[in-house]
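Q: Predict the assembly, please.
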Amino acid sequence: AQTVTQSQPEMSVQEAETVTLSCTYDTSESDYYLFWYKQPPSRQMILVIRQEAYKQQNATENRFSVNFQKAAKSFSLKISDSQLGDAAMYFCAYNFGNEKLTFGTGTRLTIIP
Amino acid sequence: DAMVIQNPRYQVTQFGKPVTLSCSQTLNHNVMYWYQQKSSQAPKLLFHYYDKDFNNEADTPDNFQSRRPNTSFCFLDIRSPGLGDAAMYLCATSRGDPTLVTLHFGNGTRLTVT
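A: Predicted assembly structure:
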């Protein structure tokens, strides 16, 4: 069974600084998809960034980028120039080609003004 | 804006009293999901509908049922809520394309069981 592990239950970062959230996963598949979702307090969960495993290039969305290491089964999220609005729970998720996602346990990110 | 709407935002029910949570979508997506999320935990998939096809997770208790009368609406029924069923319930949708599984979430319904 596929599992997703986020080893950092909580992280904090100074506003305008850079922070990296870790995610590892276990799978025997070669083609799959990885995601980072953001869940702000009392607000809906939204997609931050997505990576296709067959792509070697790391995905980037504005201040958000990933470091995808397929051999190591690692998928970290880097947030540059952290802003107060980035404070949220961040969930790493995995999908291997059906309609279901497997989520990690989440990392709570606090932004220090 | 196209969206996923969950009602109510907060629901209080008594131990053993049936409760229904609702979800509607204007995205015209094929797949609708129900997740249970307890405090500081990962969302746990209860079941999902791919069009009219119901897909139950193996470890979802029989106490949880779902209905999808049409494309736009999906309901979560808890037949006899226990204290352990207090949680946030998240509805989500996706197109169902296996190469592009991006979930769109509603705001959730927080269920309290007294």
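The CA atoms of residues 31 and 96 of chain B lie 6 Å apart. Chain B touches chain A at residues 4, 31, 40-43, 45, 48, 50, 90, 92, 94, 96, 98-99, 101-103, 105-108 (CB under 8 Å).
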